[in-house]
Amino acid sequence: MSCDGDLWFENPISSPWLTSVAIKAAELQGRRPGIVFLRKLQEYLFVDKLNISDEEILVQCAQEVNLDIEEFQKDLHSNSAKKALQCDLKLTSEMDVDQIPTIVLFNQKDEQEGVKVTGLYPYDVYVKVLHEVLGKKPRSAAKPSLEEFLQHYKFVATKEISVVFDWSDEKTEKEMKKLLFKQVVEKVPAKYGTFWRYLGSE
């Protein structure tokens, strides 16, 4: 997701600790709610330039993605979410993960060490690494339709769509304009890139 760097001057984040605990608190309500909460937080930060270290903003975000608010607020100040975060930090330390992005891939069927990939690479590099870890060529899952993808993620960048569907920027814009005309999405211009908000029903 593209980032408007002005946010560091206009509304700087005081500390990432509470935000990180909030992500774990959301994950305690399930993997899917945790992912939805994280994506909405990224939208708040990178597009709306909100201070996501502010507890009120975190609660607002949780409300917007339909988390159980009472549970979320309780977990935000509980040991459960803090312990979950500390486990993540311990795991990253044990695996020598000190850069973002980093992916560590394991094969559950053998006891070999995982393969760590640090940095951003073209998609086919990850496919090759998966092949190496699995000992066979990975089978791709069927791609969703464009509308299914938008319905699932709700708010996406043009670049995300281009990468997922392996389309040129021109093809992506063309397809999104069709959905814009049908009022399935709304266009959200940003300083660096364009975003699309899904308006359709569930």
Kindly, what is the distance between the CA atoms of the first and last residues, rounded to a whole number of angstroms?
24 Å
CATH topology of the domain at 7-82: Cyclin A, domain 1
CATH architecture of the domain at 7-82: Orthogonal Bundle
Q: Which homologous superfamily in CATH is the superfamily of the domain at 7-82?
A: putative protein disulfide isomerase domain
Return the string of H and E elements: HHHHHHEEHHEHHEE
The global form is globular
Helix content: 40-55%
Strand order of the largest sheet: 3-5-4
Radius of gyration: 19 Å
Structural class: mainly alpha
Strand content: 5-15%
CATH class of the domain at 7-82 reads Mainly Alpha
Rounded mean pLDDT score: 89
Count of runs of 4 or more consecutive helical residues: 10
The largest sheet is: 3 strands, antiparallel
The residue ranges in which pLDDT falls below 50 over 5 or more consecutive positions are: none
Number of strands: 5
GO molecular function, one term: isomerase activity
InterPro entries: Thioredoxin-like_sf
Pfam family, one: Thioredoxin_5
Organism: Salirhabdus euzebyi
Structure description:
- Pfam families: Thioredoxin_5.
- GO terms for molecular function: isomerase activity.
- Keywords: Isomerase.
- InterPro entries: Thioredoxin-like_sf (IPR036249).
- This is Putative DsbA family dithiol-disulfide isomerase.
- This protein is mainly alpha-helical.
- Among the domains are: 7-82, putative protein disulfide isomerase domain (Cyclin A, domain 1), CATH 1.10.472; 146-198, Arc Repressor Mutant, subunit A (Orthogonal Bundle), CATH 1.10.10.10.
- The protein contains 10 helices and 5 strands.
- It has helices at 7-10, 17-27, 31-46, 55-64, 69-76, 79-94, 123-134, 146-153, 158-165, 169-181, and strands at 102-105, 115-118, 155-157, 185-189, 194-198.
- It has a 3-stranded antiparallel β-sheet, with helices on both faces. Strands 1-2 form a two-stranded antiparallel ribbon.
- Helix 2 crosses helix 6 and helix 9 packs across helix 10.
- The longest helix is centred in the N-terminal third of the chain and has 16 residues, at 31-46.
- The chain is globular.
- The two termini are 24 Å apart.
